[in-house]
Amino acid sequence: MENTTQQLHSSSNRKPKTLQVSLLAVALVLLLFLASPVSSCNEEEKTSLLGFLDGLSQASALNTSWKNDTNCCLWEGVTCNEDGAVMDISLASMGLEGHISPSLGNLTGLLRLNLSGNLLSGELPPELLLSSCIVVLDVSFNKLNGEFHKLPSTQELAIKVINISSNFFTGYFPSDTLDGMKNLASLNMSNNSFTGKFPSTVCVDKPFFVVLDLSCNQFHGGIPPELGNCPVLRVLKAGQNQFSGTLPCELFNVTSLEHLSLPNNHLQGKLDPEHVVKLIKLVILDLAGNWLNGEIPDSIGQLKMLEELHLDNNNMSGELPSSLSNCSNLTTFILKGNNFHGKLTNVNFSTLPNLKFLDFRSNKFSGTVPESIYSCSNLIDLRLSYNELHGQLSSRINNLKSLRFLDMSNNSLTGDITVALMEMPMLEQAKSEQIFLATSVFPFPLYLAPFLQYRTTNGFPRTINLGYNRLTGVIPPELGDLKGLLVLNLSFNNLYGEIPESIGNLVNLQVLDLSYNNLTGAIPSTLETLHFLSKFDISNNDMEGPIPTGGQLSTFPDSSFVGNPKLCSPTLVHLCVPHCSSTNAAALPIASTEQYIDKVIFVIAFGIFFGVGVLYDQMVLSRYNWPNLVQL
Ligand SMILES: *[C@@H]1O[C@H](CO)[C@@H](O)[C@H](O)[C@H]1NC(C)=O
Ligand SMILES: *[C@@H]1O[C@H](CO)[C@@H](O)[C@H](O)[C@H]1NC(C)=O
Ligand SMILES: *[C@@H]1O[C@H](CO)[C@@H](O)[C@H](O)[C@H]1NC(C)=O
Ligand SMILES: *[C@@H]1O[C@H](CO)[C@@H](O)[C@H](O)[C@H]1NC(C)=O
Ligand SMILES: *[C@@H]1O[C@H](CO)[C@@H](O)[C@H](O)[C@H]1NC(C)=O
Ligand SMILES: *[C@@H]1O[C@H](CO)[C@@H](O)[C@H](O)[C@H]1NC(C)=O
Ligand SMILES: *[C@@H]1O[C@H](CO)[C@@H](O)[C@H](O)[C@H]1NC(C)=O
Ligand SMILES: *[C@@H]1O[C@H](CO)[C@@H](O)[C@H](O)[C@H]1NC(C)=O
Ligand SMILES: *[C@@H]1O[C@H](CO)[C@@H](O)[C@H](O)[C@H]1NC(C)=O
Ligand SMILES: *[C@@H]1O[C@H](CO)[C@@H](O)[C@H](O)[C@H]1NC(C)=O
Ligand SMILES: *[C@@H]1O[C@H](CO)[C@@H](O)[C@H](O)[C@H]1NC(C)=O
Ligand SMILES: *[C@@H]1O[C@H](CO)[C@@H](O)[C@H](O)[C@H]1NC(C)=O
After folding, report:
1. 284 - beta bridge partners?
2. Which ligand is nearest to the CA of 266?
3. Transmembrane stretches, by residue range (predicted)?
């Protein structure tokens, strides 16, 4: 506008006055025309849109805006181009029900159609896939169903992005569906129920094809070798299907691949050292949950961009190649559930400073926990359980400043539990973590126990699990510093001495398992202050004296206390633990009366405890909003 005025101004110096006025008038008209907010739609376009409205259920969110007697370019979610042709329909997450009318295929200027996140059902009209103008089609997260049929061959199509993920589509995906889609860049058909083989023609004549997501379907057969013909494919996700056979070597010709995810299929064979190294741009490699065997090839060290390596739950074996030390961008390294053996010291973890998640559990690793692991100060989750590790935990463990989850159970670790363990910052923080309704989803759902399920980052339970080792010595009183701790398991070790009073400082503790040690002394009454304790086990030690009755302690079953002959129960709650002799029970004179009264008292006590317990649970649960925590 400023430009126009300036031009008019400068021209006014040279032109006669009448011309000046008429020029101004023309400019004004022109300005008015340009400034008019929307073009008006033509009748055919309106008819096509009303056809779509017709397919929706009556009470749709569009019923007030989409009126026959108004300009359809002003309708909710509709954008027209200058010629009054509908260019963009954007109606995501509007609660739309009904079906998608094929009449939308008659909109000759439609570039983008976004109907994601509604409740639309029925089939996807082939007219939309055959439209010569649509560039972006997003119907993800609906209830669309039915099969894709063979489409008549057509001229070159404009479509670049197809997102039909998270629907209920079934049947084969006909190989010619994608014919003519020379411009296709991204196809997401994940989370449906497609079956059969995936079309081998997927990459034919598709020079721009970048993203293919087939995950969570029921495709079977081999991974098509023809994928090797995709010249610029960066993302290939096909996990959670029934693909079988070996990884075709052609796949490793797709050197543009950055993200290769094929978890939870039936893939077999080995990782070929010469093949793998060709994918030099790989950032994510996920082959978990297959039937792979063989070793991790030495050449993997050349994949310097690698950030995530998931090979868990296969049948892989051998030692870790030391070249892994070269993958300095690794954040996530998951090998659990294989047959790897040898020393962890093969890898210099100090060259992997970005590591956040390390899970090697359930393998046959031996030797000691490498010192270099303690330089990974970004580690959040460290799991080495169910291996054959021995030696002591290093006093450098307090370098793991971000650690929230430590699981080294079921090894042969020895030595005094190091005090350094009690100095881990993330475990010390008393920040309460009871809000499990966080929005960000944690990459690996955790199933700690049937009754504790955490799926969110915030809900990530701060844990120390050193159970089933050969740890000796006393539990250091510094334990009380780990105020952020939610789960502590030291069971099945050779710990002796008393349970420190300071345990009462672990105000967030939910699970405490000290069973099968040689602990002595009385149960600290400070345990009564742990209001969130929902699983407690000190069975099979050598504890003595009365079981405290306050707080949560009265809610635990006998099995939490058995195997401690010197323990006694001052109440009648614990039937398998002897009553404390000095108190009331022993004073009752006649056996039969005693039994009778016992029963009466038990019934009353049970009623009170049950009632109070339930009431208390309700209060706690509602106050802290713990949807996933169910007290057994
Ligand atoms: C329009 O839809 C709303 C709900 O979205 C419903 O309450 C209303 O009755 C509908 N109106 C008509 C005329 O169907
Ligand atoms: C819209 O209105 C026009 C006349 O105003 C009418 O001819 C046409 O049938 C109407 N369309 C629908 C779908 O109701
Ligand atoms: C598309 O337009 C043609 C011609 O105007 C018409 O015959 C046909 O019924 C329309 N298709 C749909 C699905 O509305
Ligand atoms: C469609 O809309 C949803 C919700 O706004 C958005 O998340 C999605 O990215 C859109 N799809 C495309 C292809 O832009
Ligand atoms: C569907 O996929 C496209 C392309 O990847 C993406 O832009 C869009 O955001 C996706 N839609 C949703 C709802 O995520
Ligand atoms: C495909 O869509 C699903 C949602 O349906 C989404 O979770 C996934 O990230 C998408 N895939 C790609 C490669 O964007
Ligand atoms: C899979 O699709 C269903 C149906 O649309 C949806 O409810 C679910 O959230 C999707 N799952 C994922 C992981 O996207
Ligand atoms: C991989 O590509 C090379 C050339 O880039 C070619 O010679 C070779 O045959 C291809 N291998 C496969 C298995 O397609
Ligand atoms: C690690 O990642 C960063 C940022 O993503 C990148 O700039 C760097 O090149 C990567 N390092 C290597 C060795 O590739
Ligand atoms: C796993 O590999 C071992 C050899 O490393 C082999 O003996 C065993 O049969 C394999 N198991 C399965 C289920 O393939
Ligand atoms: C790491 O990479 C360098 C150069 O690429 C190489 O010389 C060295 O041998 C590699 N280290 C290991 C342990 O493979
Ligand atoms: C437990 O400790 C007592 C003495 O404190 C000792 O006599 C006993 O042998 C220990 N038992 C075990 C299994 O270590």
Report:
1. 259, 308
2. 10
3. 596-616
Q: Which of 496, 541, 543 to mutate to test the pocket of ligand 12 (most atoms within 8 A of CB)?
A: 496
Give the pLDDT score at 398: 87
Residue 117 placed within a domain:
no
Give the residue, by CA position, lying nearest to ligand 2 atom 5: 69
Domain count of the fold of the chain: 1
Within 10 Å of residue 542's Cβ, how many Cβ atoms? 15
Domain encompassing residue 581: 417-616
Phi then psi for residue 238, to 5 deg, are -145, 30
Regarding the beta carbon of 315 and ligand 2, being less than 6 Å apart is answered no
Q: Is residue 86 within 8 Å of residue 109, measured between CB atoms?
A: yes
**Rounded Cα–Cα distance for residues 267 and 290 (Å):** 5
List all residues 6 or more positions away from 304 whose beta carbon is below 8 Å from its beta carbon: 326, 327, 328, 329
501 ligand 8 Cβ < 6 A: no
Ligand 1 center to 67 CA (angstroms): 13
In this structure, is residue 409 part of a structural domain? no
Q: Is the CB of 141 under 6 A from ligand 7?
A: yes
**Is residue 521 one of the residues assigned to a domain?**
yes
Strands of the 364-368 sheet, one edge to the other: 317-318, 339-343, 364-368, 388-391, 412-413
- Determine whether the shortest distance from the Cβ of 446 to ligand 2 is under 6 A: no
Tell me the CA end-to-end span of the chain in Å, nearest whole number: 72
pLDDT at 460: 67
Residue 293 CA: which ligand 10 atom is closest?
Answer: 2
Contact residues for 596 (Cβ-Cβ < 8 A; gap 6+)? none
What number of residues does the chain have? 632
Rounded-to-integer distance, Cα 393 and Cα 191, Å: 44
Q: Which residues line ligand 5 (CB under 6 A)?
A: 116, 138, 140-141, 161, 163, 186, 188, 211
CA of 151 to the centre of ligand 10 (A): 45
Q: What is the CATH number of the domain that holds 436?
A: 3.80.10.10
Atom of ligand 3 nearest to the CA of 106: 1
Tell me, what's the pLDDT at 23? Answer: 53
560 inside domain: yes
Name the amino acid, one letter, at 258. Answer: E
- Pick from 262, 255, 202, 198: nearest CA to 227: 202
Half-sphere exposure (Cβ direction) of 378: Cα atoms closer than 13 Å: 13
Task: Please name the helix (run of DSSP H) or strand (run of DSSP E) that holds residue 53, with its range, or none.
Answer: helix 43-55
Ligand 10, atom 11, lies closest to the CA of 315
User: CA-CA distance, 36 to 40, in Å (whole number)?
Assistant: 10
Exposure string for 480-505, b = 16+ CB within 10 A, e = fewer:
bbbbbbbbbbbbbbebbeebbebbbb
> What would the two tokens of residue 499 be?
């349970």
CA–CA dist 469, 601 (Å, integer): 42
Distance CA 446, CA 59 (A): 41
Residues 304 and 281: beta-carbon distance below 8 Å: no
CA of 188 to the centre of ligand 6 (A): 6
Q: Which parts of the chain register pLDDT below 70?
A: 1-38, 429-460, 582-632
